[in-house]
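Work Package 3 (structural annotation) set out to generate three-dimensional models for the target panel prioritized at the project kickoff. During this period the team completed the workflow that converts sequence records into discrete structure tokens, so that structures can be stored uniformly alongside our sequence database. As a representative example, we reproduce one entry of 124 residues exactly as it appears in the project archive.
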Amino acid sequence: QVELVESGGGLVQAGGSLRLSCVASGHTFSGYTMGWFRQAQGKAHEFVAAITRSGGGLVYGDFVKGRFSISRDNAKNTVYLQMNSLEFEDAAVYYCAASPSPVLDREPVQYSDWGQGTQVTVSS
């Protein structure tokens, strides 16, 4: 089991940027595929991005369209989500999640550990 704590959310104007961080503790961080998901009010979890254990493999949700970038620093036990050109529709609670599988997976059920989430609000 790994404990995850997200930070970096907040209020941003449309077109602006935010960088989310997720710090892991409790187990070997480099042994986990890491993902970011989001949940807007009244909606299901939506896949945002995932990164392999080494950081060499990446996958993004279709809506990202080059605006977001996922990265990780295994020495710091941290995964990041850089979000640029934010749109009103990006407002949601953003969660990081860890999967013991080496596969880049878009399904929330494949991720065994989740953070508490960080709120992103986008103003028009």
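Residues 33 and 53 are 5 Å apart (CA to CA).
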